[in-house]
Amino acid sequence: MAADKKNAEDLGAHLVFIDESGFLMCPTVRRTWAIRGQTPIHRCQQRRQKVSVISALTVSPTRHRTGLYFRCYPETNIHAVDVAAFLRHLLKQIQRRLIVIWDNGKIHKGEDIHLLCRRCRRIRLEALPAYSPELNPDEGVWNQTRAALSNIRPNDPAKLTKMLCKTMAGIRASPRKLRWCFHQSELPPFL
User: Whole-prediction pTM value?
Assistant: First the structure.
């Protein structure tokens, strides 16, 4: 009986696919146009500076509307504290129950996240099978972002952060691009 009640509550929950990624200062090089016989050259200093990003691709339960939420962390790695803060941000933005689907990363298992789940009953965490990024539609967000930022060389992490935010805001504003993320994944079609 309790399982039936939980399943009924989950029918009205938002699906939330979460993933993290890092973007280095050196550009991702892709095929580009050039003058015949002159290979384009991207000069880049080997700097280990980067911008870490966490994003959530959401699907509403009734109309299957998609959404994208993200946060950038210049020059730092994302930790469990940051993931918990991002989950709290999602809970403020989305008033229904959340079923969070993500990988088994170490940062998803911190004490801050367990504490948040004990305090807030609107959130349920589900892990994807090990070594299966193809099942997470949020990988499509990274594919589109890397394609849009390919062959671009920012000067500092602040400029890269600004470019990332602009690119991801463009993806957020396009329902077609958000739905593509689901179609390119190997999830069974449900939209």
Answer: 0.85
